[in-house]
Design a protein that fits this description.
By secondary structure, the protein is mainly alpha-helical. It contains six helices and two strands. The chain has a two-stranded antiparallel ribbon. It is globular, with a radius of gyration of 17 Å.
Length: about 180
């Protein structure tokens, strides 16, 4: 999907699709990193750093959703309020900080078996900093969800689909935070 949007985003009048590209590729990066937790061939020392990059992917993803929900025109970031730009800046800086060993993850390695699938996730325990960051990201995503609900209440075309889809995504995000 991201590749399709890369092509579309280059077309005149489709500049806003660049935000969709960031959303798609940050989600894909997050999912790819999750493979590390179940790959037995990955050295745990490398797995810690690679796994912690999910904090940055989450920051990028949440920030892109804010730009999508609130931005307008061909340059959605430029049209955001100073408060929303601050939310994005804080998210990105905090997500990047959580990649640093000891900031986002501790040295404690946990093994989480998924019965019936033969998968064992290897996760480093999170710290108070990354736990707070995960709650922050849910708040950032909630900003977008609130915007989509407002759009639906105003009767915007296809806003109901956005609310339903994003609602499912948001519930998945809550489950992800509660299980890590």
């Amino acid at each position: 999907m991201g590749v399709v949007f890369v092509v579309l985003a280059r077309a005149p009048g489709w500049e806003r699709a660049r935000v969709a590209v960031v959303i798609a590729f940050s989600a894909a990066g997050y999912a790819a990193v999750d493979v590390v937790f179940s790959a037995a061939w990955v050295d745990p020392a490398h797995g810690r750093i690679i796994g912690a990059t999910n904090f940055l992917f989450a920051a990028i993803h949440g920030s892109a959703w804010v730009a999508y929900a609130y931005g307008t025109g061909p340059r959605p970031l430029a049209t955001l309020s100073p408060r929303l730009r601050a939310v994005i800046a804080i998210s990105l800086a905090w997500g990047l900080a959580c990649v640093v060993p000891g900031v986002g993850t501790s040295a404690t390695l946990r093994h989480v078996a998924v019965p019936g699938f033969g998968v064992v996730y290897r996760q480093y325990a999170t710290t108070w900093c990354s736990d707070a960051f995960q709650a922050w990201v849910l708040g950032v995503l909630l900003l977008s969800f609130v915007r989509f609900v407002r759009d639906m209440r105003r009767g915007d075309r296809d806003a109901t689909v956005r609310v339903l889809g994003f609602g499912i995504f948001f519930a998945s995000g809550v489950a992800e935070v509660l299980t890590t």
